[in-house]
Amino acid sequence: MPEEKNAAVVADALVQQDAAQREAAKKDIARKYAGEAAFFDVDNTLMKGASLFHVARKMYERKAFTLSQAAGFAWKQFKFVMRGENMEDVHSVRDSALTLAAGITVEDIKALGEEVYDEMIESRIWPGTKALAEQHLRVGRKVWLVTATPIEVATVISTRLGLTGALGTVGEVDDGVYTGKLVGDILHGPAKAIAVQLVADREGLDLDHCWAYSDSANDIPLLTMVGHPVVINPDAKLRRHARENNWPVYDFRSGRRAATLGLKAATVGGAVYGLWRGFSKFRGPRL
After folding, report:
1. Which domains can be identified in the chain, with CATH numbers?
2. Of 56, 147, 246, 255, which has the maximum CB count within 10 A?
3. Which alpha helices (DSSP H) does 33-118 contain, by range?
């Protein structure tokens, strides 16, 4: 009937108009937040513990190094979870990782990064931090990871979470194989601030309207360069700094230091046992 046909035409026109309006609204939002972005640290901020530890654990599973070397990584991870990062531990992990990476192909590390994310990292991501990143994405801001983790692994995490991109430590490559040297320095502390400034210059970002998230006092140079610094799961020094500067603080951890000494001791014991089990299951039967 003509009336039904006319009604269908009108309805189709309204649907198209509504779609056009939604698309226009999306473009308006994108323009509004074009100069804004959020930068997230990874270790203890986006996820519990150190991502490089899980890379090392996977490499041990593939027999890339010895049990004693694995135990060294486990001890560094334990200290990292309990007290936060410090430069001595970061540089120690860096030097060990560079030595172990020499001779490994880029494709192997990329594949390893995918496995590490699926098996070890995904379940350790803090839901609260993930929600903050997703909130920025919903309103049209770009979201970058900024981490000392190798860029190949950082890129896997960023891609899996649907983020804009990642800034990470870059290893020197010769003919598709890592040489055991770095391009520049480990992306840590002040180096993060420099990397973010380069991204801001390239992307046309207004850092006064950007956000940065971290757990460590080592990232104060990054946090102070943006208009909206946010502290997540902070170490003691960063918590004090945040309080003095009236920065927002989110703590997604359970069993914090404010808990009783007995609970803390139980947590330490559980962490040690978990680390031992995590490596010993790859060791196989003794001969």
Report:
1. 35-283 (3.40.50.1000)
2. 147
3. 51-61, 67-83, 87-101, 106-116
